[in-house]
Specification:
The chain is of the alpha/beta class. Helix content is 36%, strand content 25%. It has two domains: 133 residues, Trna Endonuclease, Chain: A, domain 1 (3-Layer(aba) Sandwich), CATH 3.40.1350; 44 residues, no CATH class. The protein contains six helices and seven strands; from the N terminus they run αββββααββαβαα. The strands form two sheets. A five-stranded mixed beta sheet has the order 1-2-3-5-7, sandwiched between helices. A two-stranded parallel sheet has the order 4-6. β1 and β2 form a beta hairpin.
Length: 178
């Protein structure tokens, strides 16, 4: 299930023009020793320069509450110094956004959770936003393609609005003038 969530979030960024790299590895040290972990996604937009380290946690039905912050300490591991260094090395800059994608932030305790994230420089995006906005770039691209089609073939029998699914049974030669 986690891989599916990562792919949905990856698609969310790619549909908006970002280049995305998954599973950015980093080595960390604790009092118990050393280990390896990863940042789920790093994304950079080639035109705007916007960049982000993105961690995907939870499932679509799960609510994050203040208790989750205590019970799930790895929720913010992607902003520990070792992880930030790995993201900076990959993205080529230190001024990237830190984004945590979660199922939902619970209504009760919402402000403490969002405040805790803000203190760590983390933005939270909830999965309903990811899913709702998933098709927006496609709808915009489809509308633009239909407009361009109408401009290329102004005398055509083809009408973009007549074919909302983008399928057309006739050819696109100009109609006979007569």
């Amino acid at each position: 299930m986690a891989e599916t969530n990562d792919e949905l979030v990856r698609a969310y960024f790619e549909l908006r023009g970002y280049f995305v790299r998954a599973n950015v590895l980093y080595e960390y040290r604790t009092t118990q020793g050393m280990g390896w972990s990863d940042i789920d996604l790093c994304a950079i937009h080639p035109r705007s320069g916007d960049a982000a380290a993105v961690e995907v946690k939870g499932w679509h039905t799960e609510n994050i509450t203040p208790a989750s912050l205590k019970d799930w300490p790895s929720l913010f591991h992607f902003v520990r110094p070792e992880a930030l260094r790995a993201a900076e090395e990959l993205l080529g800059r230190a001024d990237f956004r830190r984004i945590l994608v979660v199922g939902r932030v619970g209504d009760r305790g919402r402000e403490p959770v969002l405040g805790y994230a803000r203190e760590r420089g983390v933005e939270i995006i909830e999965f309903p936003t990811i899913l709702r906005d998933q098709g927006q770039p496609l709808r915009e691209a489809s509308a633009g393609a239909q407009d361009r089609q109408s401009q290329r073939h102004p005398g055509s029998r083809h009408r973009a609005s007549a074919h909302p699914a983008g399928r057309c049974a006739h050819d696109h030669r100009p109609a006979a003038r007569g």
